[in-house]
Amino acid sequence: MVVLNNIYKGPYNVLATPTFLDTQEGSFDDLITDLQSAWDNFNKTGAFSTEVLNQAYKMYENGGSFDYLALFKAGITVVGSVFPEIAPAVPFITMIANFIFPHLFGGTSDNKQTIINIIDDEVNRLLNERLEQDKKDELQGYLNGMGNNIKDFGQKIVDTLFNSNKKPLIPNSHSLHDVYQSYSGFIGNVNTVIDQFRLKSYEKMSLPYYCLAVTLVLNVYRDFIRYGKKWIYTITDETDYTTYENYINTAIKNMNQLTSKATKYVLNTFKTYLPTYNYNSKSQLNTYNSYIRSMTISCLDYVAIWPTLNPIDYPIPTQLDKTRIIFQDIVGPTGKDIHFDLFDIYGKKLPNNDVFRYSYGGFQLSSARFLTSSYHPSDIKHCIFSGFTAENINYKSEVTQQNEYDLQNGSLYADSSWSNTITSPMYLFNMASQNTMYLDYSALYNSDKYFTIAGCYPLNDNSTGKGYHSNVTSTANHKIQAIYAMHNNPDVEQDGRKRGILASLVPFEVTPTNIIGQTDQNENQKIQAFPIEKINHLDYNKIKVERSNGANSISMETGDVYSIYFTNVLHQNYQIRVRAATSSNNIQIKGSIYNEDLNGTYVASFQPSLSNTSILNTENPELNNLIEGINGDIYKLFSSSEETLNLTLSPGNYRLEFSLQTGDTPVILDRVEFIPIPSQIKPQNLNIQDNKSYEIWRDNNNNYASYLSGTVVPIFNPTTDNPIVTFEYFDGEESLGTIPKKYSNVGFDDIPKWLGKKFNRVTVTVSNFTFPPGSGITLANLIIQDIKNKYSQFTTPEDLEKITNQVNQLFTSSSQTELTPTVTDYGIDQMVLKVDALSDDVFGMEKKTLRKLVNQAKQLSKARNVLVGGNFEKGHEWVLGRKATMVANHDLFKGDHLLLPPPTLYPSYAYQKIDESKLQPNTRYTVSGFVAQSEHLEVVVSRYGKEVHDMLDVPYEEALPISSDESPNCCKPAACQCSSCDGSQPDSHFFSYSIDVGSLQSDVNLGIEFGLRIAKPNGFAKISNLEIKEDRPLTEKEIKKVQRKEQKWKKAFDQEQAEVAATLQPTLDQINALYQNEDWNGSLHPHVTYQHLSAVVLPTLPKQRHWFMEDREGEHYSVTQQFQQALDRAFQQIEEQNLIHNGSFANGLTDWTVTGDAQLTIFDEDPVLELAHWDASVSQTIEIMDFEEDTEYKLRVRGKGKGTVTVQHGEEELETMTFNTTSFTTQEQTFYFEGDTVDVHVQSENNTFLVDSVELIEVVEEE
């Protein structure tokens, strides 16, 4: 028996982490994260796990809106190692081939759903066209031929990088030769291979397969170039080195040529088959939009990706915002092929009704409400969807979009009502309408056609002349970007009151905000590419519709100024470049950067020097990665006039302003790109030929580094002495220590990592080596890592005394067993920085002793903290948003800190609940923490109801040098003064609040909830040292105050629980009554019918989402789910026992043979069969499996009106059930059958016969 406590535990007494609400974008993003993890492991072991691909494939096979090909495209671009110097150059093609050829990597060779079929299904869904099977077989044959060669090439690279025990290797000249042989064997006839996918007379239908083939080949080029660039230094023979260098350069040229050639072919084919669009009728525009939608998803998105596969221009993964919009089919306003007017989000009519005038424009639909209007001027009942109001947001502003009939033409309706606000993301809209002599209905709905958002749902469904359905399906991995009102043009059609909707779509990941500096779980970054069309206040006349770039381009003329806003979340060096097209050499663009957080303060500028891309395309197109767009514009990447512009940006919000300085012709701007440049220096490879000392790096500008990384490659005659390579680290001229490494055979090793003090100079010396001919030692891939400002070193007794006194002051006594109450966790971290700055040489023993004491203080701080993991260390119990990450290497923190990024796609938060058992009664607790920087950081602490609710905006400020006095290293004022950060006084960086706990509420585990989240799209925060600690017992006055608060909470809590219980109990009783022994996992009672399930109304419970974490389940979510699952199991049982297929008409008239005017209508929100006249009927023939003559069967029918249900079995046996009622009644008859074939016939005997369900079941005794 299921009782209320089994399914509803109450709002407080469950500490399990709330799970994410299941969303399309969330599931997709989780797969991307898993794919990145698989790739990272591949880099370490040489073994690529296909688990995530298998999971994705199962999601595709199970149906729904999952886009397998979208994951494939994401894998091509955004997955991978960040800086190529650190990675071994494992082949991307191995991961990609696992998508396309699973049977080559352990999958099933006879897999029915090949990639060819997946593409064919997608094209058919969008265009209602399919390739003939023999053509698909032909393409599959070509693809399989490519697959075997691709697998061999990828495996050849892996074999040179890892041994059989998955240990890394350094390739040698023989390895590089083997890889080239495998590569050249595939590439030798690549043009012929690719052209096979251009099926003659099937150019349009085969275009997606051609794009797939080109993508595979470009990735082979990419892998060979990356591998060759990474390991060519291991070739010692000068001639061989030059030859291999030529191989790489030829691959770069061929890759650029293929990209250019394939792009041109795709665009030409796209234009050739583009439907005519010369009149704003619904049929023309839907045909036109459907074609563009299909070609964009299956072809043009690949074209946009291709240039970013070039490893010279894009050495690390690239996040390209594809702001190209595609359109859902028009829904409504009626089923007619109407003529209509187009309006933008500002309510302005588009010039010439030109759909090309629509563009992304930096806006995203945020929320909308929809209007229902009803009136009865005569016998006709009108109930229609008549308008909407929508909120559209961009980076800086919000536009309210209104399109309601009442506002435009005056009120004609007796009754109008607004829907509840629907928030993004929205995925699709659909409409149904009906216009007869008795009624005029139109209904707007999204996923569930029986859940109407606005208007009234038609009584007659799917009937020509009576009902109309738009039947739009969602586009996988896309969301609605904007909605536009559609209504009849009064000059062509009457009745302009009804509204329809044209919805534009963009990929899930596209948002109005532009974020740079974001890292993944391994602190890797990507190149961020933002289309210029994301600028504010976009002029329609400047838009250049471009199909090759994943976004529209913008025309810029002299005097134009375009601003694009972005948020940087990491103190980072960047190279900034633009992608543009121009037909002139006299062009100068200026990019100026302003800090919006400092009232638009000027930061820096850069000036890319543009050259005539048309001439470059004529002279050496293969050297420049030039792409010709659909309008003939030639696009190229342009950096600053300096060879590399390394611009350092602190975290914050910025405006990048473009202006055309000189030029007599327009410039066509595509996008701006931000390339992260790590805080490192890359010395040249060093070839050592003697035993003298070589200086690798020296800095004279007070910069110090943590360690040197790279590879030692000795090449020598085995008969010679074994060399010793010694690295020596210095502070100026003072040696900090050495690390020697002895080599006993031909091989390689990484440079041993230096674990000592920071250094500003490093040298290498080789000893015990005679350097015979042909021998040598090479240092390759050298990187000076983690470069920062001068590291403090305390060497005086005064410094030691100050720091020793401060360490002792952490404790209440010399026993060091209790912390001083005023000491904060952040203060302890500050103290360890001071101790670490003591000189090892001068105060080695004292430093060791002090460090033990500070460690003890940190452990005591953790013990008193009722939070688990206040520093976000391993084992913390914070519940984090999807994109929240731990970040290291910040001067204001000792260890990692939490980065809450902008909530562009998902809420950004950290949340933890303190168990009631950790708290003391009648006690005050202090809640504190340190914020290095924040914008729009919301802080909430709640026990009885959000006792603390604050918003913190903490400016970016740099760390001060570590000092031996009591002052912390926070902070060096930037543009404003900052108070001290020791917590002893109010401070913008250090927050502190109090919360009082009265009597303990152990029965409901009330606890303390603590949350931090980002409140606005351009906000972010860097946080650590969070504490909730016991402060002191409450005074009598404070106890009385908290008791009053507790009583109010308790009264409201008890009332809410009583209301919830009262709401849930009737439904619980109804569901219990369905099952034998009230066991929801057991069998239904034999008498249970579809109507019993329909009679169960699920309660409306408000807390489906967590009160703080909006993308996670709320306290009522699981209850609703358990109810729904119980009903689903019940429905499944009825379906399984009902011998009649679709007896509930839940799937329309599927499985029924229809004669006359038979259709579905809606009665009490359920689909019901309507036989409109005496000549209408439906019938079905079934065959009973394992038929036995002694088995008794029951016919159960629920109907209304006049009609008959007959069951024919055997040769002449006929059973009849007669209806003649004015209300719905249920009739049952039992009988035995003469044979295993049964015909069921439902016939109207008058004007209308309504049938709710038809069941034919085997009679079973109740257990």
From TrEMBL:
Keyword terms, alphabetized: Sporulation, Toxin, Virulence
Domain Pesticidal crystal protein intervals: 90-310, 527-677
Family affiliation: Belongs to the delta endotoxin family.
Protein's UniProt keywords contain ATP-binding: no
Residue ranges of domain Pesticidal crystal protein Cry in the record: 877-1031
Taxonomic classification: Bacteria, Bacillati, Bacillota, Bacilli, Bacillales
Cry1Ac-like domain span: 1145-1220
InterPro entries, sorted: Cry1Ac-like_dom-VII, Cry_V, Galactose-bd-like_sf, Pest_crys, Pest_crys_dom-III, Pest_crys_dom_I, Pest_crys_N_sf
Protein name: Crystaline entomocidal protoxin
GO biological process: sporulation resulting in formation of a cellular spore; symbiont-mediated killing of host cell
Protein origin, superkingdom: Bacteria
Signal peptide: none
Keyword Transmembrane: no
Molecular functions (GO terms): toxin activity
Annotated SUPFAM superfamilies: delta-Endotoxin (insectocide), N-terminal domain, Galactose-binding domain-like
